[in-house]
Design a protein that fits this description.
The chain is of the alpha+beta class. About 45% of the residues lie in helices and about 20% in strands.
Length: about 750
């Protein structure tokens, strides 16, 4: 088919137009009717054919123009002076122009679908990751500069600009794609670096903060900057090409430096300029201290750094000495030495004070222990016999009863005061040892209920302990927690109204704490009184009332709760009552907890009447205490009492009589009670005999030592007869049946 046939043959795109023309001719033919001649129809067909050819020619020309325009655009895109890239949402290269591939040093087929971060230098990987993550979906116009690595490993600096629009090779650009313009700015960065370097050099030369002295190879000064002029007092004109730095230095120091270097290097070194630059001339970085001699004759301590200056062949052409004023450092060093001397002196004083405090603390401990023992011993006899008189077989007369009640009331108050003063002294001295463990709140409250019940009944106050959860445990010292709660309960009963009530509750407080509340229906407290709750000896205006108290109990409670890592506080409303609370850290229940582990149990309230005969050995050196104990046991059938006056006598009688229980005083002449307990525990014939300590040594460490030595119970004097008999009955009840 020739070119003419090709031109006359209708193109595929002409077929729809031809079909439309033929359809129109059919319509015209039908409209004319059969009378129209064939010649007329042929003429009209030729006219339409010419029109179609003209239209096809215009369409072909438009296609040619479009292809030419597209080729020009592709050339502009591919050969642009910057690289154009399209990155997918995961940072992969979806499209790149030829300029971009040239920058990266790889063919297009090797670059596509590779991660752009593979071409980012290691030091800028994180910057690119952060910047690209923020750029997705952001407004175009952002810019970042990165160090990049070509395929051959060479590094160049690139500027990346975020663009809008689609690259021509992206057939289906996704909305999450990011388009970048990549510009090589390595040369610009180099020029900036050179400019900065030149500026830096000029700044160094002109700096007044340090001296820059440059010499030629012989040591003659060639550069003497403003800093050198200021530090040494010479003008540059006075020293350039005239002197060496050695002539501006302390000659004695140069001599000493030359000797030291000669010994160190094993070669003679002259005490002049050579001594200043010897190490630097051999490629060793050298920094040392020297003293410049200023023009006015004064001395200037300085730190000097020396560097050898070399030409392109490595030949030394001079030396650069950069010096800084060292006077400030000398002052700082002198101040540091002065402070060290002061600190050493203060440390010595502190050691002496600490030693004195330790001696004083030890003396205080001994005094407290001695005072506790000395006060409790006569108080024990007084309270013991008063209790016996009150509970004697013959009831006292009303007058006697009033006298006995006054004795007991004053005695127990004095004991409470002694206990709380000693507790506070021990806590504030920092010697109180607490044993924090998982403590059952329910068991502790049961113990407190038993301890507070007599006071509540005698005062006509109802106390409701609710039903505490058996799953609540706190981190606390069992004994001290009970001490705090009993104090709060006792106050709630004492300061209540007649026929009032006390409610105890506990619940979790937050995720990690437990709160215990003690609410009373008393008169309440004012805000001013609440603010003074935890002040020592402050009874909040109750001093003149009929209710006894020391004003120390709440102070001790706060110290104990603080030491256990908890908090204590109160809320109160006048005429309604008060709500005291403590919070402690919650603890997990011990994994091996069993019912037998519970610290509470029913007490033996009926004594041992009708029980078999038991023998009790009482080791005590105070006759009044022995007499009181004899009277106590005269009223208890079924018990035979033996006595011993010291530890050795007690051990001997225990071995001979094999009593069922031993009551042991701790402060005994000769062999102490603790020593006697240890001797008994080591003897197989007496090791199984339970020992109850009865002692006026009531400090916490005394109690701990007694229990650690093997005492079954440790009761402090003055004893409460009912408490003592309950403890004795419990120990006797636990003995093997006979």
């Amino acid at each position: 088919m020739n070119a003419s046939d090709q031109r006359n043959r209708p193109a595929a795109t002409d077929l729809p137009l031809r079909a439309a023309a033929e359809a129109r001719l059919d319509q015209d033919r039908q409209a004319r009717g059969p009378e129209q001649s064939a010649a007329q129809l042929l003429h009209e067909l030729q006219v339409h054919q010419i029109e179609l050819e003209m239209q096809n020619e215009a369409l072909r020309q438009a296609k040619l123009d479009l292809e030419e325009s597209r080729d020009r655009y592709v050339d502009l895109y591919e050969l642009a002076p910057v690289g154009y890239l399209t990155l997918s949402a995961d940072g992969m290269i979806a499209d790149i122009n030829l300029t971009g591939t040239a920058m990266l040093g790889m063919d297009r087929r090797d670059v596509l679908r590779r991660s752009f971060s593979a071409f980012v230098a290691i030091q800028d990987q994180q910057r690119w990751s952060d910047d690209f993550g923020n750029a997705q979906g952001a407004t175009p116009g952002g810019r970042i500069e990165l160090a990049m690595r070509r395929a051959d490993g060479t590094v160049f600096h690139a500027q990346l600009d975020y663009l809008v629009g689609s690259a021509p090779r992206a057939a289906h650009p996704a909305s999450s794609e990011v388009r970048l313009a990549l510009t090589d700015v390595t040369e610009r960065r180099r020029q900036e670096s050179l400019l900065q370097s030149g500026t830096l050099q000029a700044a160094i030369i002109q700096s007044a903060n340090f001296s820059s002295i440059a010499t030629d190879a012989r040591g003659v000064i060639q550069v003497f900057n403003i800093g050198a002029e200021r530090m040494l007092g010479y003008s540059a004109r006075e020293v350039l090409n005239k002197v060496t730095p050695a002539e501006l230095s302390d000659p004695q120091e140069l001599l000493e430096r030359a000797r030291a270097l000669s010994a160190e290097q094993g070669t003679p070194i002259a005490p002049g300029f050579e001594a200043l630059v010897y190490k630097a001339s051999r490629g060793v970085e050298d920094v040392y201290e020297l003293t410049y001699l200023r023009k006015d004759g004064s001395r200037l301590p300085a730190v000097v750094s020396v560097t050898a200056l070399r030409d392109a062949l490595g030949v030394i052409i001079g030396f650069l000495l950069i010096g800084t004023d060292n006077r400030a450092r000398h002052r700082v060093e002198a101040e540091r030495l002065r402070l060290i001397e002061m600190l050493e002196e203060r440390n010595a004083e502190l050691e002496r004070a600490t030693l004195a405090a330790e001696h004083a603390n030890q003396a205080k401990s001994e005094f407290l222990s001695s005072m506790s023992h000395e006060l409790r011993t006569p108080l024990g006899a007084m309270l013991g016999f008063a209790q016996l008189l009150d509970a004697g077989p013959t009831a006292p007369t009303p007058a006697q009863k009033r006298s006995i009640d006054q004795i007991l009331k004053a005695g127990w108050y004095l004991l409470e005061l002694i206990n709380e003063i000693l507790d506070l002294a021990v806590i504030e001295s920092g010697r109180l040892a607490l044993e924090l463990e998982a403590t059952s709140v329910a068991d502790t409250l049961r113990d407190c209920e038993a301890m507070i019940e007599p006071q509540a009944q005698s005062s006509g106050i109802s106390v409701d302990f609710g039903a505490p959860s058996a799953l609540l445990f706190v981190s606390a010292d069992r004994l001290r927690l009970k001490q705090v709660l009993v104090n709060l309960l006792s106050n709630a009963i004492k300061y209540n109204r007649p026929g009032g009530s006390v409610a105890v509750s506990c619940a979790a407080s937050g995720a990690s704490r437990v709160r215990i509340n003690v609410r009373d229906s008393g008169a309440g407290l004012t805000p001013a009184q609440l603010a003074q709750l935890f002040e020592s000896f402050n009874r909040l205006g109750q001093e003149s009332g009929g209710i006894e108290g020391t004003g120390i109990g709440l102070v001790v409670c706060k110290r104990l709760v603080d030491r256990m890592g908890g908090a204590i506080g109160a809320h109160s409303t006048l005429g309604v009552g008060s709500d005291f609370w403590i919070e402690l850290e919650r603890a997990s229940a011990p994994p091996d907890l069993s019912p037998d582990d519970a610290p509470w149990r029913d007490t033996l309230s009926d004594g041992l009447s009708g029980a078999p005969m038991y023998t009790v050995l009482y080791v005590e050196d105070q006759p009044s205490n022995v007499a009181m104990m004899k009277e106590i046991f005269e009223r208890r059938p079924g018990i035979r009492l033996l006595t011993a006056v010291d530890g050795a006598d007690g051990v001997e009688q225990a071995r001979e009589g094999l009593p069922d229980v031993i009551l042991m005083d701790i402060s005994l002449p000769g062999m102490s009670g603790l020593d006697a307990v240890e001797v008994l525990a080591q003897d197989p014939t007496t090791a199984c005999i339970p020992v109850i300590a009865l002692s006026a040594n009531a400090m916490p460490e005394d109690v701990q030592r007694g229990l650690a030595a093997g005492c079954r119970r440790y009761l402090t004097k003055p004893i409460r007869i009912d408490e003592f008999l309950t403890a004795l009955d419990e120990v006797l009840a636990a003995l093997p049946r006979r």
